[in-house]
Backbone:
């Protein structure tokens, strides 16, 4: 059976840097609180009305991944695009990416809605298509524009200081080399906690005309809600479980991981997992300090930076893990 390898990585973040001190001007928060609780120093926000959108940022990350892979756009057979913040309610950004990258062929484009786990779910989908031989080369993109939808007042401070905008992408390709590339992926969900981290409206049960008619600025269902403590406790538990599951499935132990790239939810979550797994600092990659939580973009963005910095080398055992809204959680083990 064929294996799927990541042959190129890329990322893109908007130029506009929003420091914790900038948020102090908008809401009752402070740099010390944000850094102590989350590790975040700054994040990127798009400039409203500018050229950056979820799809255009995804396209920029994709172009870098395609260039680093040393292939042409038309070598790609299929697109998988993960986001919770699409340009439009529908269609999803996959088709926009197909248009923006200028494909000659009318290749398929799939949109994935799994929030913080979206990238690993997408990687898993690409892996299955490649393993079965249906596609040879698949582009996987994660991109998010959170900034426009956050409650940037004191009311929303528990959520809005955490999230940032950005994009990451990988090109995956079939290889005959066994034991190389994606070794396994592990996907989970627990829908009973759907409302613990969610953006409820607009919903098909309460559609836009009702919203316009009510015109109620206090209707917070139009902003993301997060039960922070509950999410935190579940995240640390599920991260450990799903990483353990990947290691067991491949008969590896934690000390054999060369680089753990956790979804960048909160630096304290990453540090907790690192401690539990007894991993040294140089085997865990974090960049949440500079970008905040970029949801589906966070893992490909971190992976791309890790590759660029020479921290991921050929033959390394790479572990990706994520937890987020749904709840959904996932892991992937990769022999680079
Ligand atoms: N600035 C200043 N104070 C803030 C604040 C902010 N941005 N946000 C909340 N606070 C206040 C709260 O109002 C609360 O005040 P009180 O004690 O007077 O009621 C206090 O800080 C503590 O709030 P709490 O929510 O208990 O803090 P916490 O230590 O749980 O940290 C999170 C909050 C959100 C950082 C933390 O729960 C977390 O990281 N959760 C998981 C996040 C996550 O991973 N999300 C994505 C999953 S993919």
Residues:
């Amino acid at each position: 059976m064929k294996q799927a390898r990541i042959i190129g990585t890329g990322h893109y973040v908007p130029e506009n840097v929003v420091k914790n001190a900038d948020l102090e001007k908008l809401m009752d928060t402070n740099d010390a609180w944000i850094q102590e609780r989350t590790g975040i120093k700054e994040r990127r926000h798009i400039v409203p009305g500018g050229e950056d959108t979820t799809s255009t940022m995804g396209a920029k990350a994709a172009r870098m991944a395609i260039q680093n892979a040393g292939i042409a756009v038309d070598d790609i057979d299929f697109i998988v695009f993960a986001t919770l913040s699409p340009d439009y309610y529908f269609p999803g950004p996959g088709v926009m990416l197909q248009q923006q990258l200028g494909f000659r062929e009318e290749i398929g484009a799939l949109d994935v809605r799994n929030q913080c786990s979206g990238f690993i779910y997408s990687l898993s989908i690409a892996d299955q298509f490649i393993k079965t031989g249906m596609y040879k080369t698949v582009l996987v993109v994660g991109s998010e524009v959170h900034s426009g939808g956050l409650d940037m007042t004191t009311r929303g401070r528990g959520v809005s200081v955490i999230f940032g905008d950005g994009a990451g992408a990988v090109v995956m390709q079939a290889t005959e080399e066994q034991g190389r590339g994606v070794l396994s992926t592990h996907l989970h969900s627990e829908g009973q906690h759907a409302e613990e981290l969610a953006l409820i409206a607009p919903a098909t049960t309460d559609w836009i005309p009702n919203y316009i008619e009510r015109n109620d600025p206090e209707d917070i269902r139009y902003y993301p809600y997060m039960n922070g403590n509950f999410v935190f406790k579940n995240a640390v538990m599920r991260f450990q479980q799903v990483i353990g599951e990947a290691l067991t499935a491949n008969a590896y132990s934690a000390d054999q991981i060369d680089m753990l790239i956790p979804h960048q939810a909160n630096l304290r979550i990453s540090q907790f997992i690192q401690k539990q797994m007894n991993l040294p600092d140089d085997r865990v990659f974090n960049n949440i300090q500079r970008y905040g939580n970029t949801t589906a973009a966070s893992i490909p963005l971190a992976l791309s930076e890790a590759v660029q910095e020479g921290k991921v080398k050929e033959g390394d055992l790479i572990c990706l893990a994520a937890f987020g809204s749904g709840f959904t959680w996932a892991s992937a083990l990769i022999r680079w």
